[in-house]
């Protein structure tokens, strides 16, 4: 039985383009084609299982992952799985037993054996790929007896891994009709500006006075934040008399419950004493004063999807109309087999004050309308995966999650502009496949500044998680911390928000000025940053030999961040992130222009493949002819960022490639317009550019003249490298575009 041109199931073998991926496929496994014309994925199908068994949880073998291909090479896979209740990370392997519990996305590299018949083993090394996306079809309700399993796994095939992943998710989108692909969503404007989050600065001791200190400190340093996230600590919360207090490190008391939707006394005008229910002294006053004084564009606040960690407090007048009920989470065996999470254990012991699902919109609408009236522009909604533990009696975890997210997104739409929500602690497919409009989500576990194992694994986790979740949302790569330059470089290629959580007065302004322009805007790349194709199946945290390369695109250039992340990762034995190599080694790898997928899309017509590579730390220009490469060597925890620019060969005989603002991590993100005009013997390059500081470009010939806004400027030219540099002043207008003309 064959589906499309790629997927086939016969004689117990699941094949893609004639190459076996699974063997010993069980007889009760069934394949269902996608619904027909108009589907995004032609070479794809759903895997299901026929069964007469009853019960709310069933485990079915599908088949065995093939180990060796015809030329004796191991198949390789990369998956992302929930290493704890809230978050995913990556895992690589070569056989089925290596696939962890709670895997939610799997991609297998299959050697294309169809060429071997012709004796061309070299050609056989060009791999096609197969992708499987796991769907949360089982509802997770103990009361559910009947099993419907025709669409449990979606599998698709193709030669371009990124295209196949994108089209797979779009096909699943059409099948479920419960979520939207990222490309259809409104991306909040905060991603285009620098921000500050209060969490590490104050934890739950945040106050209006602390906010002022943080904003003033950053503004004085020349990197004014344009958005603020007021994290946990602003709400009115309390613990039950019989509750068991639990705090992890410096974090919140997870036994607390929400007792009022309004702010606590720390966010009132005097910021001291007892709370006074006077709008003139409340949150609205504080927010208005901050926005006026510090020219803030956006202020977001934190809340849990259940109100607070312990939910909403039952039995009190202020909350009774939401009909909260004390319930106790029940997590799945798969989650328990990995890391159960101290936070989840605390919530399980104390229970959750759970708002009746039919009252969820009323609860969110009351909360958000109050916040909006006080000048709040959006919310960060945390603890989202907790819903999967509360599905009993509500039609199961998937149905409950969907109902809550429909209510949440409806309230966001009603009360805030700009799709102003950040999702957090939400790495289950229940949430991903319920996200109709939510467009931003934290991409990885928290970055713990005092945990050495956290420094390198965080970058790897967000990059590989983004391969999957980047199809649903724009990943948020979290705040910057110690080793901040290493992490700042990653944020620059991640296409994500740029924000810090420093204590007031403890900022690295030299670093921030590589990320943030004086007007508070950032040079954000266009897409979610993902590992380069040659990194998809290598293990840059454990194998001792691989660097991690992350690619992205700007309007006219590409960018690659390269990182030595070896030394720490998730441990199968301890079920924790650990340092497994205290002295990881120096590693050498290669960089190609083709590492940037779809670079041709931003090149001029007629581009023949030659490119310029500009290294941020080295400050060097390298001319790479098509299909050539350069080497890079990094010590442990070192990085480099390369701007990759297609070279334009002009009819005048000159070659040109604009690099951008050379002091910024993402240099090419500054270029917002580019065109070429030729009137022999003179060629003219016309650009629109944001920002200030040194601007660089490659030119095979020395320019005759350069003007900025029609004024001629001085420039330097290095004949050996072809590097042209000149200075751009700090513009007076926000997001101003300089008009630059270079005559060659």
Structural class: alpha+beta
* Biggest beta sheet summary: 7 strands, antiparallel
Number of strands: 44
Distance between the termini: 61 Å
Rg, alpha carbons: 27 Å
- The spatial strand order of the largest sheet comes to 5-6-12-11-10-8-9
Number of helices: 13
The total domain count is: 3
Shape: globular
Instruction: Quote the average pLDDT.
Output: 91
Pick out the low-confidence regions. 121-128, 132-136
The oligomeric state of the chains shown is: single chain
Features:
744 residues; alpha+beta; TIM Barrel; 3 domains; 7-stranded antiparallel sheet; 6-stranded parallel sheet; 13 helices; 18% helix; 29% strand; globular; Glycosyl_hydrolases_36
Report on this model:
- The chain is α+β, with helices and mostly antiparallel strands and 744 residues long.
- It has three domains: 2-177, no CATH class; 190-231 and 256-308 and 357-442, TIM Barrel; 530-743, no CATH class.
- A seven-stranded antiparallel sheet has the order 5-6-12-11-10-8-9, with helices on one face. A six-stranded parallel sheet has the order 21-20-17-14-13-24.
- Helix 8 (360-373) packs parallel to helix 9.
- The protein is globular.
């Amino acid at each position: 039985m064959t589906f499309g041109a790629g997927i086939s199931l016969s004689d117990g073998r699941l094949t893609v383009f004639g190459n076996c991926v699974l063997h010993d496929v069980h007889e009760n496994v069934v394949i269902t084609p996608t619904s027909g014309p108009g589907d995004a994925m032609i070479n794809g199908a759903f895997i299901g299982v026929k069964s007469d068994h009853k019960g709310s949880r069933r485990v079915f073998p599908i088949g065995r992952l093939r180990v060796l291909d015809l030329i004796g090479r191991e198949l390789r896979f990369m998956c992302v799985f929930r290493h704890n209740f809230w978050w995913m990370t990556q895992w690589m392997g070569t056989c089925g037993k290596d696939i962890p519990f709670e895997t939610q996305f799997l991609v297998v590299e299959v050697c294309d054996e169809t060429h071997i018949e012709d004796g061309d083993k070299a050609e056989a090394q060009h791999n096609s790929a197969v992708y499987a996306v796991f769907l949360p079809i089982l509802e997770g309700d103990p009361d559910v007896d009947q099993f419907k399993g025709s669409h449990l796994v979606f599998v698709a095939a193709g030669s371009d891994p990124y295209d196949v992943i994108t089209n797979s998710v779009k096909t699943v989108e059409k099948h479920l009709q419960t979520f939207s692909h990222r490309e259809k969503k409104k991306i909040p404007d905060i991603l285009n500006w620098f921000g500050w989050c209060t969490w590490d600065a104050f934890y739950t001791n945040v106050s209006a006075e602390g906010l002022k200190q943080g904003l003033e400190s950053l503004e004085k340093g020349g990197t004014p934040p344009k958005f603020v996230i007021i994290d946990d600590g602003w709400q009115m919360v309390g613990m039950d008399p019989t509750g068991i207090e639990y705090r992890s490190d410096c974090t919140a008391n997870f036994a607390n419950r929400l007792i009022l939707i309004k702010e606590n006394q720390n966010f009132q005008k005097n910021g001291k004493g007892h709370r006074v229910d006077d709008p003139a002294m409340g949150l609205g006053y504080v927010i208005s004063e901050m926005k006026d004084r510090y020219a803030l564009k956006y202020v977001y606040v934190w809340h849990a999807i259940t109100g607070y960690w312990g939910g909403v407090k039952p039995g009190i007048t202020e909350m009774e109309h939401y009909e909260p009920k004390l319930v106790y989470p029940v997590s799945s065996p798969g989650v328990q087999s990995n890391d159960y999470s101290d936070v989840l254990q605390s919530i399980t012991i104390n229970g959750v004050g759970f708002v009746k699902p039919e009252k969820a919109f009323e609860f969110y609408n009351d909360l958000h309308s109050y916040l909006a009236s006080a000048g709040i522009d959006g919310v960060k909604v945390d603890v989202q995966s907790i819903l999967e533990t509360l599905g009993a009696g509500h039609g199961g975890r998937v149905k409950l999650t969907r109902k809550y997210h429909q209510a949440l997104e409806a309230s966001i739409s009603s009360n805030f502009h700009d799709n102003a929500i950040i999702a957090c602690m939400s790495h289950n497919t229940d949430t991903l496949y319920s996200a109709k409009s939510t467009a931003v989500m934290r991409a990885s576990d928290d970055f713990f500044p005092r945990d050495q194992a956290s420094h390198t694994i965080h970058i790897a986790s967000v990059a590989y998680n983004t391969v999957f979740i980047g199809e649903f949302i724009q990943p948020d790569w979290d705040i910057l911390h110690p080793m901040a330059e290493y992490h700042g470089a990653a944020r620059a290629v991640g296409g994500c928000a740029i924000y810090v959580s420093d204590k007031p007065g403890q900022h690295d302004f030299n670093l921030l000025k590589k990320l943030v322009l004086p007007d508070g805007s950032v040079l954000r790349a266009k897409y979610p940053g993902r590992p380069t194709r040659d990194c998809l199946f290598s293990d840059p945290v454990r194998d001792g030999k691989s660097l991690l390369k992350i690619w992205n695109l700007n309007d006219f250039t590409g960018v690659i961040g390269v990182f030595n992340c070896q030394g720490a990762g998730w441990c199968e034995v301890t079920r924790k992130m650990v340092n497994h190599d205290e002295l990881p080694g120096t590693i050498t790898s290669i960089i190609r222009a083709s590492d940037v997928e779809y670079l041709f899309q931003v090149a001029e017509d007629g581009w023949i493949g030659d490119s310029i590579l500009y290294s941020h730390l080295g400050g060097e220009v390298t001319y790479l002819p098509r299909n050539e490469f350069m080497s890079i060597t990094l010590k442990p925890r070192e990085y480099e960022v390369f701007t990759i620019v297609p070279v334009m060969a002009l009819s005048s005989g000159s070659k040109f490639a604009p690099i951008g603002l050379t002091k910024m991590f993402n240099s090419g993100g500054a270029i917002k317009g580019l065109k070429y005009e030729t009137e022999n013997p003179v060629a003219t390059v016309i650009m629109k550019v944001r920002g200030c500081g040194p601007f660089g470009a490659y030119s095979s010939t020395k320019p005759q003249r350069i003007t900025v806004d029609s004024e001629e400027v001085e420039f330097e030219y290095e004949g050996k490298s072809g590097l042209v540099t000149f200075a751009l002043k700090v513009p007076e207008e926000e997001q101003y575009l300089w008009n630059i003309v270079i005559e060659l």
